[in-house]
Amino acid sequence: MDIQPPKPVFDSLPPKTAFIIGFVSAVLTLGTIGFVALGSCVLKDGCSFGSSAVAAVPTPSPTPSAPTPAPEPVGNPAAVTDADHIRGDKKAKITLIEYSDFQCPFCGRFAPTADQILKDYAGKVKMVYRHFPLSFHPNAEPAAEASECADEQGKFWEFHDKMFQNQEGLTADYFKKVAADLGLNATKFQACLDSDKMLAKVRAQQQEGGTAGVTGTPGSFLVDDKGRIQSIRGALPFESIKPMIDQMLQQN
Predict the structure, then answer these.
(1) Fewest C-beta atoms under 10 Å: which of 26, 54, 78, 128?
(2) Residue 154 region, left (φ>0) first, then alpha (ψ -120 to 50), else beta?
(3) What are 152-172's pLDDT values in tens digits?
(4) Same domain, yes or no: 122 and 241
(5) pLDDT tens-digit profile of 79-131?
(6) What is the DSSP string of 39-101?
(7) Could you give the CA distance from residue 175 to residue 228 in angstroms, rounded to a whole number?
(8) 218, part of any domain
(9) Can you give the pLDDT at residue 20?
(10) Residue 49's CB: how many other CB atoms inside 10 A?
(11) Residue 103 shares a structural domain with residue 48
């Protein structure tokens, strides 16, 4: 059985009374909506006050731009001094300066390339190693400090080679083991590590690399004795670097 719905209240009121109540209700409703809208847009600091309306002005979305590619190293690396770690003939006319990270796999891949350069261009190219530990390689900076502590006892390059031979195991215990294998004074080596006195040198070299335009590792440069600079970005193979060296030698 169908149920008849009740009649609306307004149907039982006189027409004039119903009109007045409806009009007042409409005015109150519109006023409330307008007040809420005005308060909302004012709080958002996005309103435009015109002659006949109050409306929120939408902020245009910025047009997305294409990502900017990472710049190539273009600056001048710091001049080589006796304080640098130099491998090869110090009188060589061309210097390979590498900003590197002991935990970086690409740096590990580049190490044999650097060795081949020194072998094939003996007397013509020397190498300088500088620190550039990346923030997302947590063991890189401690390894760099440890290598400087090994340098205190004249074993930087030997320590350097051991770091790249075991990049997955760069721990404090491994540093001690390498120091022992190299015949370093364990007490002196540990005291150096505990003092963090080499941290400033490591970070200074990293900052110098950044100034020279290094954004990742390995970040390297070929520099000749006339000041000409050729940047090498990444772990390029020997075959890609050889023409650069040959061209520099021809210019000399």
Answers:
(1) 26
(2) left
(3) 999 999 999 999 999 999 999
(4) yes
(5) 999 999 999 999 999 999 999 999 999 999 999 999 999 999 999 999 999 99
(6) HHHHHTT-EEE-SS-EEE-PPPPPPP-PPPPPPPP-SPPPPP-TTSEEES-TT-SEEEEEEE-
(7) 38
(8) yes
(9) 56
(10) 10
(11) no
Least confident of 50-59, 78-87, 148-157, 200-209: 50-59
Residues 36 and 120 in one domain: no
> How does strand 94-100 pair with strand 125-131?
parallel
pTM for the whole structure: 0.71
Structural domain harbouring 187: 85-251
Regarding whether 213 and 149 lie in a shared domain, the answer is yes
Q: Residue 61 domain-assigned?
A: no
How far is the first Cα of the chain from the last one, in angstroms, to the nearest whole number? Answer: 109
Task: Report H helices in 121-237.
Answer: 140-151, 156-165, 172-181, 186-195, 199-211
DSSP character for 217? S
Burial class (CB in 10 A: 0-12, 13-18, 19+), 216: middle
From the number of C-beta atoms within 10 Å of its C-beta (0-12, 13-18, 19+), residue 26 rates as exposed
